[in-house]
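note to self: dont lose this again. the chain is below, predicted strucutre after it. 399 aa total, dont forget to put it in the shared folder this time
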Amino acid sequence: MRSLELFAGGGGLGLGLDLAGFKAAAVVEWDKWCCDTIRHNQALGYPLVQHWKVHHADAKTFDYGSVGQVELVSGGPPCQPFSLGGKHKGYDDARDMFPTAVKAVRILQPRAFIFENVKGITRPAFANYFQYIQLQLAFPEITIRPKESWLDHLGRLEQQRTSGSRSGLQYNVVARVLNAADYGIPQQRERVFIVGFRADSGERWSFPQATHSYDALLHAQYGTGTYWQHHPIKQSERKQHYARVQGDVDRRAGSKETGLLPWRTLRDAISDLPDPQSHAARSVLNHVYQPGARPYPGHTGSLLDLPSKALKAGGHGVPGGENMIDFGDGTYRYFTVRESARLQTFPDGYLFHGSWSEAMRQLGNAVPVRLASIVGSSVAMQLLSSGEERMKMEIPLRA
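---
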């Protein structure tokens, strides 16, 4: 199934959707370093990106008519207008690319779309604008008029929704905040996904159910102890970790097992990588030691036996207190680019172009590949199954 990937970044969402069965007819990204990362991997022969037609372009001025018919439009519109670390301007921020995403949907009329953004867009301060985004995607042909305020436009969209009219291009839109850790990603990363299906298709879909849980991790650590069988560390380190999670262990005492898998931890993700200061690290892509890690108030690093904290990109370089390991003994170390890529579930053969800070910016803005694949596979299965049903109805049965 053909797709269009907007705001591609370093390729996380695109890689996941490729694994789900979507083939990008065009990949649009304005940042040179991100384009270099994708093209560098193409030059290295990395298979998932070989067919990507990368456009180093502004999505606002991109010629969508040149793409042709696509089944899916996807992307992660820049999140600075809504992130906790941003200026919180929303619609008034020139970096808000949701209007461009709506434009692409309006022109291409895909059967479905998947957009991803920071959890901050769901905050009460943005409640009206978040509703506005979803209604624009639901009715992409009802465009804002010259000199019309976005609130007045929102009012017209609300009238369209409540009228029950089925005329024109419409999408059934759902949105949900997903925690990547709940889907087997070794990182507590909460992001909002907005998914829509064209209303005339009659698709019925819901977000995939969680497969992993924190309670299951605690049970594996301090119930069955199977976690420590995989990670045979000193008793002192186990006790140190227990002191941090004891309240949660006590809380879940006596609770029924849910059948979910344990959250994957930072140790799960990186324990087989060599020390970045060792000679062996030279054979691992992007696994280079970065000096200078230190904690500071509000930025204390990630513990080895929990999923990592969300990777951060930062507006003026990476806030290192978040993108580092807290070894629990008073020592700290920055994540290498490869370790960060593991946390975002990028394949080990995928190379990030640029300096440590530049590569970390790309990773901090990325969608975990596995999470993109899980959501994308669910959407792809719905599109394929409904397509098969339509074919059965259109082909007359032979006697």
